[in-house]
Write a structure and sequence with these properties.
about 35% helix; alpha/beta; 5 strands; about 220 residues; about 10% strand
Length: about 220
């Protein structure tokens, strides 16, 4: 609370809190540093917290791209970063691709072809996991370029690479390819509601984390 006292998003009622009393309570409160492992896993980059479902373990990996995950091997990356054996999983929710779309794909010679090749490879690697229940989460729509982002979200000095329309085309291509492999393999697909869009078909700031972030708000 103390670290956020002067943030624009901080409630004006924060002055009603006794911060010294809160410090005392926190020092006396028992804490734990792990969550019991589950046979259900939500795996992805920093966006994956927004697709948490009770009963699932969540493995969040800030800055992890779909490209590097496929390059290094999906099974190896999941097991190395989550500490879970893929063979023990009954359910896997997989959510990656937003970082590739925001920063990397428009730097490629043929970005739309690269999307298709990545999704085909994702399909092959997911099938090889032999997890009974798989869900893939669609990429988020692109927000207006006026959105102010923290420097931690920059890559090579920029908050994104490519125009809004170019990256929106990537999102649409990515999601259509995901839908296709999910139909082919009888996997579930999670699609973001159209209500998240404003009248310009942009991801509405109202649904994004305040005061400035690329993530969805926890509501």
């Amino acid at each position: 609370v103390k670290g956020r006292l002067h943030n624009k998003s901080t409630s004006l009622k924060v002055g009603d809190l006794n911060l010294e009393k809160l410090d005392e309570i926190c020092k006396k409160t028992l804490s734990f540093n792990h969550v019991e492992k589950s046979k259900k896993l939500c795996f992805g980059d920093s966006h994956c917290f927004s697709t948490y479902v009770p009963g699932y373990s969540v493995c969040r990996n800030d800055g992890l791209t779909l490209f590097s995950t496929l390059r290094d091997g999906l099974k190896n990356v999941i097991e190395d970063k989550s500490g879970l054996s893929v063979s023990s999983l009954s359910h896997l929710t997989f959510y990656m691709g937003n970082i590739d779309i925001r920063h990397h794909l428009m730097r490629q010679e043929n970005p739309l072809e690269k999307v298709h090749s990545m999704i085909i490879e994702l399909s092959h690697q997911l099938k090889s996991l032999n997890v009974p229940n798989i869900e893939i989460v669609n990429a988020l729509p692109i927000e207006d370029i006026s959105r102010k982002l923290p420097k931690t979200g920059y890559y090579k000095g920029t908050p994104y690479f490519g125009t809004w329309q170019e990256r929106t085309n990537l999102v649409n291509t990515f999601n259509a390819a995901v839908d296709k492999i999910c139909i082919e393999n009888k996997w579930d697909v999670f699609r973001w509601p159209e209500s998240f869009l404003n009248d310009k078909s942009e991801l509405d700031f109202e649904y994004m984390e305040r005061p400035k972030s690329v993530h969805l708000s926890p509501l």
